[in-house]
Amino acid sequence: MNRLACILLTLLAPAAASAASASYNIDPLHSFPNFSVNHLGMTTVHGRFERMTGKIVYDSAAKTGSMEVHVPTSTVSTGDAKRADGVRSRDEHLRSADFFNASEFPDMTFKSTKMNFAGDKLESIEGNLTLVGVTKPVKLNVTSFNCGPHPYTKKAMCGAYVEGTIKRTDFGMKYGVPGISDDVKLAIGVEAYQE
Amino acid sequence: METWLSHPAVQAVGLPFIVALIVALPLARTRWLAIAQVAGFAVCATLVAGWSLEALTSTRKLAIIGIATLALCALVEVGSSNWRAAAATSAVALGFAAAWMLWRLLAQKEIGPALLAALLAAGYVVLQAGLSLHAGADPVRSTAAGAVLALATGAVAILGASAVLGSMAIAVGVSAVATLVLPWLRNEAPPRGRSIALPVSAVAALGDVAAVLVAELPGYCLVPLALVFPVSHLAPALRPVRTRAAVAFALALIPAAAAIALAWFRPA
Lengths: 195, 268
What we know:
The complex is a heterodimer.
Chain A lengths: L1 H19 E6 L5 E8 L3 E7 L3 E7 L4 E9 L3 E2 L12 H6 L11 E12 L2 E11 L2 E16 L6 E12 L12 E15 L1
Antiparallel strand pairs in A: 1-4, 1-11, 2-3, 2-11, 3-6, 4-5, 5-7, 7-8, 8-9, 9-10, 10-11
Chain B lengths: L1 H4 L2 H20 L6 H15 L9 H21 L4 H19 L1 H4 L4 H25 L3 H22 L2 H24 L11 H16 L8 H4 L2 H5 L8 H24 L4
Helix pairs in contact in B: 2-3, 2-9, 3-4, 3-9, 4-5, 4-10, 5-7, 7-10, 8-9, 8-10, 8-13, 9-10
């Protein structure tokens, strides 16, 4: 009986492990990287990128996982897309070489290197952010992370909201500092469906 | 101090002018006044772009090429016995430099459009460098034209491309103006140096093609800018240097103003 149990456990173990680790594709319609930056010490301007794709691998049992995100920098949006008088809009300026340099560096990526857990709770994600061709380590704090079935379709999904702060000059984005602050707050909301 | 140094007017105009003027003082009676232009430009490039080689953007490549024009100036001045060959070599080298500067962008295009863009960009840079070397026979007129070209490049870059690019172009333009201050005060032309306007024209031309290809400046804005050197050359070679410089400036401003107007009124 014991031998039979051992054999069954040995056979089922890999299946159980793969069941715990799942891959999720980011839903671009419900996932946006937002940012905010102080302007002239007076107010905070908010913006976001309109497109984000990527993949999350998560293993709740092993408390491991990974996250890879791609953001087309040309999709930056701050509510000033086009001006009727022909003057360059803020979004056009953000796409220029002064900021995201979207024509030379069309892609911004984040690749996680470590997921940190506090008990069963995913606390933070460490990884490398590549922006304007420069790669720097970044730590994102996870303010919420939930996995479960979609309430209507019952499809397995995960959702997360992560926050962090970067210094844009670390990525060579020097224009306008300190009037436009060096510190940029990131807030990324993600929904992802199991593959 | 940091706030002061981060002010765009200080970065693009104030400091480059002062540095170029200081460097120009001991060089005023030599053929090496172009060094002062590069010094002023380098100050601005340091402040607005920095010298980090991580992520070699087109702007940083422009800064590097701007400094490297000193080597081309040396080639032209030292090889003055056969200056035409040296000038042709310098102009062609700047054409290749333009392709290098734009490489990251060109690599994202299909081979045909990439080749066309590279040829047009290199051709424009070779043209401007060649015109400046040709005009170098009269250092007053060529420096005035180079300064106006760079200032116009700065204006169109700010309007249609990038403020950093614009700042760098304006910085080299005001540095060129600074090199004319002493000749102006003395009312005496500087010694003939064929390469006197090479750094300013090279940086301006590279800035122009970067503004078109990396950003959204319409290419037709460069057509009037190609006329800056030829038009300023119409200024009579008057003996009073002040008058000659003023007329050359005024004439160069005509195509420069046309380019700025085209950038200003470009379709939304």
